[in-house]
Amino acid sequence: MFRLSNLLKTSIDARPSRVLDGAIVIWNFTNRCNLSCLHCYSKASLDSVDVLTTEIIKQTIDEFVQNKIKFIIFSGGEPLVRKDIFEIALYAKEKGIVTYLSSNGLYINNSNAQKIVETFDYIGVSIDGDEETHDMFRGLKGSFKKSIEAMKLIQKAGGKVGIRFTLTKQTLKSLPFIFELSEKENFAKIYISHLVYSGRGLENLAMDISKEERIKAVKYIMDKAFEYQKIDNDIEIVTGNMEVDAILFLQEIEARYPYLVEIVKDKLIAWGGNSAGRKLLNIDSVGNVKPDPFFPQTIGNILEDSFTNIWNNKKNSILENLRMTPRKLGGSCESCEYLNICNGGSRSRANAIYDDLWAEDPSCYLELIKKSQKEI
121-175: per-residue pLDDT in tens? Predict the structure, then answer.
């Protein structure tokens, strides 16, 4: 994740930086879901059956504490379909772990909104654009209104809520709408994810935007971040699954605030780019541990081995390669001057297109930017 707003505020306004001394786990607690979203990486459906028991989950959370796992993003499927989800989240909070909920919002209502706010430190609700686009993308008419109502209920209960949005050909035109909606409703965060080729996202590869469209979209996002910083708007902007965004941001800093270039560059190098297998991991609904939710290979299963053994396995070549700084990669990454910032981007996309985990990220748009700069 590239925390664009946070970096701006800590660099321009000299606010204290938020440093994560530990790792984040995105945990798909269930593969059950009431929607059939086109880009779903877990191919969730209501027909799925929960495999992980409350006891096994709690045992794993105990191990998280020993292994400096500081955040759990509760995901799915739709995590709120699990009856024990509040018990699990509260257990994690008691252990000092920050709890985030990633939801479609359709199970949030008057009877549970307050409990959700008391249980989760932040709630991210998936919104795919305006009403027509969202309902089409989610496969359910009326889902947009229900999700927005859910977000307002969270706000009313005193919770922090934001939008989760994925860039695709179908949703691209709604990008300005997402910002307008957040400004109007005073949502706390906009998380914009680039498409990763996995699950239905792999089956629907044609829905991804072009590199030219991606650059234009990211520049729009950057402009909004700089605008919010100037007017002191506290809506947080974060992009995900496209670490090259940080390099475009550095170039924007050079154009707007040249005296900050070295400061920002040092912060970006310290951030380290793609953190899969290093400061980020995923546990899926059947207990498989992966470096990120989209990763094509598992590194173990908590039903077969302890999380501690899996996460600290020094003989696992995948983890060893992912934890190199910078990573040893092929293609355009091999000689790229910015590899120590982005760390090569998504290994899942590289594998999906080139059948090679250590190839360049096929969605990287840096070469296109360099080309356009030479032409100017």
Answer: 999 999 999 999 999 888 889 999 999 999 999 999 999 999 999 999 999 999 9
Find, among 142, 136, 193, 201, the residue nearest to 164 by Cα: 193
Round to whole Å and give the CA distance between 335 and 281.
27
- Contact criterion met (CB below 8 Å) for 239 and 247: no
**Interval 68-89: pLDDT, tens:** 999 999 998 899 999 999 999 9
C-alpha pair distances (Å), 241 with each of 54, 235, 299: 30, 20, 20
13-23 exposure pattern, b = at least 16 Cβ within 10 A, e = fewer: eeeeeeeeeeb
Percent of the chain with pLDDT over 90: 83
Amino acid (1-letter code) at residue 102: S
Residues 205/169, Cβ–Cβ less than 8 Å: no
Helix (H) and strand (E) counts in the chain: 16, 10
> Which amino acid is it at 370?
K
d(CA 165, CA 239): 9
Mean pLDDT of 173-189: 98
Q: How far apart are CA 113 and CA 125, in angstroms?
A: 13
247's enclosing H/E stretch is helix 245-256
Structure tokens at 98: 């920050």
Other CB atoms within 10 Å distance of the CB of residue 219:
13
Task: Give yes or no for a cis peptide into 291 (omega within 30° of 0).
Answer: no
Q: Count the neighbouring beta carbons within 10 Å of the beta carbon of residue 60.
A: 20
Q: Which two tokens stand for residue 136?
A: 């089409």
Query: In sequence order, what are the beta bridge partners of 163?
Result: 125, 190
Strands 300-301 and 288-290: antiparallel
CA distance 26 to 74: 6
156 CB contacts (<8 Å, ≥6 apart)? 113
